[in-house]
Amino acid sequence: MKRLNRNNRLNYFLGFVILLIIEILIAKYVRDDFVRPYVGDFLVVILIYCFLMAILNISVIKGLLIVLIFSFAVEFFQIINIVKVMQYQPPEPVMIVLGSSFSTWDLLAYSLGIICTAAIEFYSSSAVIRTGK
């Protein structure tokens, strides 16, 4: 099996910043039934992955799995309405992260985001091996 090499941490940080700006623009200006809910969810797992890889020294596979498990856990917390179960009203930023309703389409968007990220990592790792850099 081919080993996936990590990119430079600066690349991950730059990816995080660019995706964060895109996510903020989507949240602020887009009011539709596709880009905001699904493209936003697709991009948010890539954003979290970039952040994780920028700050931690973990393998690509471990990073991908952590982000996928985290995003699925947040989505499944919506089924049980975790805020009601905890009987605590968290601050608004926490509520934005937790979301308000479960959707299998969100799980698909998260999965596609992770698959796309894995493909990019695989391709960039292959390019490094081919060029010898």
Sequence of secondary-structure elements: HHHHHH
Structural domain tally: 1
Shape: globular
Largest sheet at a glance? none
Q: Whole-number average pLDDT?
A: 86
Strand % is under 5%
Query: Low-confidence runs (pLDDT<50, min 5 residues)?
Result: none
Number of helical stretches of at least 4 residues? 6
Task: Give the N-to-C terminal Cα separation.
Answer: 20 Å
- Report helical residue fraction: over 70%
Provide the structure class. Answer: mainly alpha
Total DSSP E strands:
0
Which value, in Å, is the CA radius of gyration? 16 Å
Protein name: DUF2809 domain-containing protein
Keywords: Membrane, Transmembrane, Transmembrane helix
InterPro entries: DUF2809 (IPR021257)
Transmembrane segments: 12-30, 42-58, 65-87, 107-129
Write the layout of secondary structure elements.
Layout: H1 9-29, H2 35-55, H3 60-79, H4 82-86, H5 92-98, H6 104-131
Helix pairs in contact: 1-2, 2-3, 2-6, 3-6
Features:
globular; transmembrane; 133 residues; DUF2809; 6 helices; mainly alpha; DUF2809 domain-containing protein; transmembrane helix; single chain
